[in-house]
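seq:
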Amino acid sequence: MLFKKKEKQKKRPKEPKVLSLNPRKKLVFSLWILLGISFSFAVYKHFTAIDTHTIEEHIIVEEELVDTNSVENFVRNFSEVYYSWESNNEEALEERNNQLEYYLTDDLHALNSVLIPYDIPTSSSVRNVQIWSVAQSDENNFDVSFSVTQRITEEDEDEQTIESSYEVTVHVDETKNLVIIKNPTLTTTPTKSAYQPTPLENDTSLDSETREEIDEFLTTFFTLYPTASDSELSYYVEEETLPSINQEYIFSELIDPVYIQEGEHVRVSVFVRYQDERTQTDQISQYELLLDKSNTWKIID
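struct:
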């Protein structure tokens, strides 16, 4: 028997090992490094940071009240001299010029000394000086606005009254002495404003019974009010809301009362007519009151 050698099976060649790399591994690794650096930096800042606080400063500006009485009186006295003169009276005009020296700087006095000739045909007397405003332009200077009412007379002519407005500047030195450094300059006089307040309207939510109660309360109160003592007022008015006046007025009527509900209170706007026995004329006062009702009505504001 013939034996054939079995041919050894050829070994298959081993496949080479392939190293598999995750393409995202580098990105993830980089992010971890970045996270570590950020965390380390945060810890470092936490221990080295300077503790700071935000401080809010509130500056309170207190308005300083300046006494301007001396300035007003100075301008008023000056005006009575400056706007007064006598016609054809050289001696009086010289005296006027000498008095102006006490109010004006040397330059202004020299300027004004030639304004009124000795043969001027008119005479002037000051009837009124009205100071309208005093404004402090800087530490030592005050701008004063005022008006002067003069009575002007001329020979063989009727007298006439004129009113003009001016502005001057007064300097006040460290010793409180004064001098006018700006010559009287024409300006305007304040006139009536066109402002009209919005008229109040009655609150329709108030019932007629409440209105009648308030009418009755106010009528009683204003009848007693002119002659009521403080103790008597305490029944109708909260302390120091309305002062006692102690005058002989006779109550006549309430005029155009307006009632407005304000929460638990009622706001009242009303005119009150009184008769003044001394002058035999009527006097109308205007009130805005806040009423409260617990057991009875009472004025609280």
